[in-house]
Design brief:
This protein is mostly beta strands. It folds into 3 domains: 127 residues, Cupredoxins -  blue copper proteins (Immunoglobulin-like); 142 residues, Sandwich (Immunoglobulin-like); 117 residues, Immunoglobulin-like, CATH 2.60.40. Helices cover 4% and strands 46% of the residues. The chain contains 3 helices and 32 strands. The strands form 6 sheets. Strands 13-12-11-15-20-17-18 form a 7-stranded mixed β-sheet, with no helix packed on it. Strands 1, 2, 3, 5, 7 and 8 form a 6-stranded mixed β-sheet that branches. The longest helix has 6 residues. It starts with a strand and ends with a strand. The protein binds CU-O-CU linkage and copper (II) ion (2 copies). The site of CU-O-CU linkage (C2O) has 10 residues, from strand 6 and strand 31. The site of one copper (II) ion (CU) has 5 residues, from loops. Belongs to the multicopper oxidase family. This is Multicopper oxidase domain-containing protein.
Amino acid sequence: RVEDGVRVFDLSAQEGTTAFVPQGETATLGYNGSYLGPTLVAARGERVRVDTVNGLSDPTTVHWHGMHLPAAMDGGPHSPIAPGASWHPEWVIDQPAATLWYHPHLHGRTREQVDAGLAGMFLVRDDEEAALALPRDYGVDDIPLIVQDRAFNPDGSFAGGIGMQFDGVLGDTILVNGVIAPHLEVTTERVRLRLLNGSSARMYDFAFADGREFDLIATDGGLLEAPVPSESIPLSPGERAEIVVTMTPGEQVALRSAAPDPDLHAGSATFDVLELRAAESLGDSPEVPAHLTELPTPDAIAAAPERSFEMSGHEINDREMDLGRADFTATVDTSEVWTVRNDNPLPHSFHVHDTQFRVLSVDGEVPPARLAGYKDTIALEWNREYRLLVRFEDYADASTPYMYHCHLLWHEDQGMMGQFLVV
Ligand code: C2O
Ligand code: CU
Ligand code: CU
């Protein structure tokens, strides 16, 4: 609803049960329902407010992953909402059209709450994206896909999973928008899939069963300059990708995930994620435009200072998260160059709040096309050096920090996180 020029969303965290499997109900958490939450949609330039109610018996927070916003609205561990209490963050959307998401960020308990079902998408629209001939009819040819892995006990409750103890819980069953083995009735020649890896530890490598090429059009922070013809797209926890796939009438094809990193996977390496079933006659879709947007060439020359982040064990730069310590202070309206390295063979990723960064290089080389756009989360391959151009704009706050962390949620909960102020 719109009240006095503010777009207002109601979001209520609730306890419930969900019937995923025939054997029995699973205790779950959800926003405005028993599992996951509504897709929030707002346009660039709009002022938004989320009237958030905590209907849980535990504290929680709601973090807007990928959103550029004041630290006090960011929903990190410094903004707990007590059971029964409410929280009313308000900000102006000011970033390009993108697929963002929201989830709890309670210190030490993020994995538990996200895995129980607290997550949803937040789509940003803008005029530039709206002017392109891309599928954007939500639920028809523009489909949000929250991909998660879970394991079930024989009675239907969530099981601990088949995970490795150092990385968190891996499941042997894939849920897409909370559904096992889903299919999508495709009614148009082209369909846009907004993929979110909403899992706490599993890395995916999405591809179609027949190896068909698709267009990668957007990553975490918005459109790429041009579609990238791809046969697969890897996503680590928290990352998003928008792809456009072309279908022929009457055909069926599965979207699958293979294992990008065999060390990460116990059990089967390949999962079916979603079956696409095309109708006998498909509505026309325009060709994907050859040019999508203009991205500034990332220019590190004026950026200062440089910082480096060594991810090892469950620490960043040999320190565990301390809610009482700001690890550094950045200056508003400046850019910095961050060098990030994963020092050990455990899988890690790197996520920064408030900003969308650009990847300058990977091991000194130009990054692959899929990393050329705006990103807020990046998978870190072992022993590679990622140089990121990170910019902080608009919002200064000397008391509330933003977070950076590994987005494998168990690692984050273990303290593989730090915080910084922007002043
Ligand atoms: Cu998606 Cu700090 O989180
Ligand atoms: Cu985030
Ligand atoms: Cu990690």
